[in-house]
Design brief:
The chain is mainly α and 184 residues long. It has 2 domains: 1-58; 62-182, Four Helix Bundle (Hemerythrin (Met), subunit A) (Up-down Bundle). Helix content is 75%, strand content 5%. Bound molecules: heme C (HEC).
Amino acid sequence: MSLTVIEKRSIDVFRFKVLPCLSVMLLLLLPSAKAEMKHSDNHMDMHAKMMGMLNQQEDTRELVRYPKPMYDMTLSNMREHLRAIHLVQQLVAQGRYTEAAEASEKGLGMGNNHGTEGHGMEHQFMPEGMKTLGSQMHKRSADLALTLRDAEITDDLKAIFTSLSQVTSNCVACHDAYRLEPMQ
Ligand code: HEC
């Protein structure tokens, strides 16, 4: 079967016009396809790295168990601690040092009993190191309150932040070392 002139022409158009055009387009697309592959390789790498990190970051904090009501009370008390730090910062920013001192005493001081039975109830469940970090934090917050009251006269922000970070270093140290669970 012989080809008609028109059929021959359209084959020629395909061979000499469409095909070269397609190959050029393909060549142009190749680098971006390669980049895409590289990107997904990177993604896999990152994924693997993160999984490795998670495995390495095994929780080595010492587990401390409290009776359930004491556990709930302690966590609620912790949230009050954070609120107190937040409040102190806010009040300091407004130059309201005496109120900041009161917020520190109320939210972080010894007066801030853990639980309705008064402070010390959970001491029997705490490892020695945890007890030390806890009572040191309360003492340091009393120092913070003093520094804040002094600031009414001295306006010494550096002293305030130094004192505040002494308190928060105990938050950090204890959180790094211990975790809690309610007793079953
Ligand atoms: C003596 C130890 C100790 C000190 C000091 C301490 N915490 Fe905690 N805190 C803990 C433990 C233990 C947990 C429970 C962590 C866990 O089980 O993962 C906790 C939990 C918390 C939580 C989570 C509460 C929730 O509802 O889950 C907050 C917020 C918190 N602490 C804030 C603070 C702040 C702010 C300070 C310092 C001003 C502070 N803590 C000082 C031991 C401490």
